[in-house]
Write a structure and sequence with these properties.
Elements: E1 2-4, H1 7-19, H2 27-30, E2 36-41, E3 45-54, E4 61-62, E5 65-66, E6 69-73, E7 78-82, E8 102-107
Antiparallel strand pairs: 1-8, 2-3, 2-8, 3-6, 4-5, 6-7
């Protein structure tokens, strides 16, 4: 079982991810590999994905913004390139979330 991780826990890490997206050595970004997120897709809604790898090539872009992670989605068995940032990290507690926002999930031990 997974739960949304409170943003106050990871704000500093997320800020680092934005500025060091293509740094070959970035322990904070490496720590996100293997973690799960939920991403709100236009048309599909919220989907759970697993961060599979970091992008190290500044030429890889989505909508002219450098990609920082590749995420695998079981729902369609596809990998997607993302630019995860604080700008699209869902921080409010309401259900009215714009598309292309995401939350970091934390495994809950039962």
């Amino acid at each position: 079982m997974y739960a949304c991780l409170c943003v106050c826990v990871c704000v500093n890490t997320l800020n680092t991810l934005n500025t060091l997206v293509v740094a070959k050595e970035n322990a904070q970004a490496d720590a996100f590999v293997g973690r799960k997120i939920m991403y709100k897709w236009d048309g599909a809604g919220w989907c759970v994905g697993e961060i599979r790898s970091r992008n190290l090539d500044s030429r890889r872009k989505v909508n002219k913004i450098t990609v920082n992670f590749r995420i695998f989605y079981e729902v369609d068995e596809q990998e997607a390139e993302h630019t995860l940032s604080l700008n699209n990290y869902h921080q409010e507690g309401n259900g009215d979330v714009p598309y292309h926002h995401w939350v970091l999930l934390e495994e809950v031990k039962e």
